[in-house]
């Protein structure tokens, strides 16, 4: 694997899930693979899990790790080259262009991880994935997506690992029902986690390994290229019936871009709703707002997989970094 920006960079999703389970069982087997190799983790936004789990995974592989928060530790970076048909004139608040910044970081690092969320102001700009594509173009080294404007593939891979483990641990049916449900929130959040979850679940659904359903209020339809052929069920309770996994996430509207169209608390996941499921497991990428998105009793119940899911971020990162190191 050369880059890990989207699922198109992955030749075999099943093999990568297997690799994640393998490194979880054998965390230090490749402790020399990353000797004298450096990863730079570049954050444009906050993080707890991604920052720590990717650092830990890199260390398990023997890599050196450097972390930088753009805008706080470094200069603000201009990403655009042309604005309205003219070369960008850098007379604003951004002191450095990504052309130089990515090239320079690429000289210090063998791999670069980047987190850059959607700004939720300009849909075309966000969905162009400018930050990832500029780093890919100018860094000259492999790029790992630590959550971009439209995707969070390290999260989705950890989610696939978590589902695979739970299927085995709870002796679930051969084809469990996985439901992605929209949750209420007063803030406008990106669609990245939901988009990505669909992108990674659809191939499993198409292979007949899971049944996949997406439920959300009208107006929260995901971009068609990410939703793919997933089934949409607007009635949340109907969607929950017989579910084996409930994957909760809030996202702002794609069609009314970046808007919070409703905060309807009836969409919160509660124990009453979990009763509709087939003793379903609750999943969320975290951070989660208790009693806004999901009630305490669900999060604190044995049905919640959120901590194991976050723990699996270490193994998804390690599987990806291992595959990249093997090509260097
Ligand atoms: N990386 C995991 C999710 C990050 C982000 N959530 C947030 O910003 C939550 C913030 C809050 O609840 O205030 C998102 O939805 O994409
Ligand atoms: N799930 C996740 O990516 O968490 P952080 O935003 O804390 O990294």
From TrEMBL:
Residue ranges of every copy of the Aspartate/ornithine carbamoyltransferase Asp/Orn-binding domain listed in the record: 209-322
Gene3D superfamilies in alphabetical order: Aspartate/ornithine carbamoyltransferase
GO biological process: citrulline biosynthetic process; L-arginine biosynthetic process via ornithine
Residues that coordinate or bind carbamoyl phosphate: 47-50, 75, 115, 152-155, 285-286, 313
Reaction(s) catalysed (UniProt annotation): N(2)-succinyl-L-ornithine + carbamoyl phosphate = N(2)-succinyl-L-citrulline + phosphate + H(+)
Family annotation (InterPro entries): ArgF'-like, Asp/Orn_carbamoyltranf_P-bd, Asp/Orn_carbamoylTrfase, Asp/Orn_carbamoylTrfase_sf, Asp_carbamoyltransf_Asp/Orn-bd
Residues engaged in binding N(2)-succinyl-L-ornithine: 147, 185, 249, 289
Superkingdom assignment: Bacteria
Domain Aspartate/ornithine carbamoyltransferase carbamoyl-P binding intervals: 2-165
Single GO MF annotation: ornithine carbamoyltransferase activity
PANTHER family on file: ORNITHINE CARBAMOYLTRANSFERASE, MITOCHONDRIAL (PTHR45753), ORNITHINE TRANSCARBAMYLASE, MITOCHONDRIAL (PTHR45753:SF3)
Subunit record text: Homotrimer.
Role played: Catalyzes the transfer of the carbamoyl group from carbamoyl phosphate to the delta-amino group of N(2)-succinyl-L-ornithine to produce N(2)-succinyl-L-citrulline. Is essential for arginine biosynthesis.
Family label: Belongs to the aspartate/ornithine carbamoyltransferase superfamily. SOTCase family.
Stated name of the protein: N-succinylornithine carbamoyltransferase
Organism of provenance: Rudanella paleaurantiibacter
Recorded name of the encoding gene: argF'
């Amino acid at each position: 694997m050369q880059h890990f920006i989207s699922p198109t960079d992955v030749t075999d999703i099943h093999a990568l899930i297997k690799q994640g389970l393998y490194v979880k069982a054998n965390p230090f087997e490749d402790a020399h693979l990353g000797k004298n190799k450096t990863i730079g983790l570049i954050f444009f936004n906050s993080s707890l899990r991604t920052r720590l789990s990717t650092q830990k995974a890199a260390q398990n592989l023997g890599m050196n790790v450097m972390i930088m928060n753009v805008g706080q530790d470094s200069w603000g970076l201009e990403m655009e080259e042309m604005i309205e048909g003219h070369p960008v004139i850098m007379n604003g608040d951004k002191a450095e262009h990504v052309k130089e910044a990515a090239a320079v970081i690429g000289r210090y690092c063998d791999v670069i991880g980047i987190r850059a969320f959607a700004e939720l102001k300009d849909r075309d700009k966000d969905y162009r994935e400018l930050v990832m594509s500029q780093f890919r173009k100018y860094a000259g080294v492999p790029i790992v997506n630590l959550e971009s404007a439209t995707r969070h593939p390290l999260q989705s891979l950890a989610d696939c690992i978590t589902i695979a483990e739970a299927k085995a641990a709870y002796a679930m049916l051969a084809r469990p029902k996985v439901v992605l449900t929209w949750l209420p929130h007063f803030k406008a959040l990106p669609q990245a986690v939901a988009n990505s979850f669909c992108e990674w679940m659809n191939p499993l659904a198409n292979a007949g390994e899971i049944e996949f359903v997406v439920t959300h209020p009208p107006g929260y339809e995901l971009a068609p290229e990410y939703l793919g052929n997933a089934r949409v069920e607007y009635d949340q309770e109907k969607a929950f019936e017989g579910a084996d996994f409930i994957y909760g996430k809030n996202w702002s509207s794609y069609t009314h871009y970046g808007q919070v169209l409703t905060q309807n608390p009836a969409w919160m996941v509660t124990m009453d709703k979990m009763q509709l499921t087939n003793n379903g497991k609750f999943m969320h990428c975290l951070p989660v707002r208790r009693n806004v998105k999901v009630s305490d009793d669900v999060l604190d119940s044995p049905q919640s997989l959120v901590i194991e899911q976050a723990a699996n971020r270490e193994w998804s990162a390690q599987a990806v970094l291992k595959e990249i190191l093997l090509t260097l």
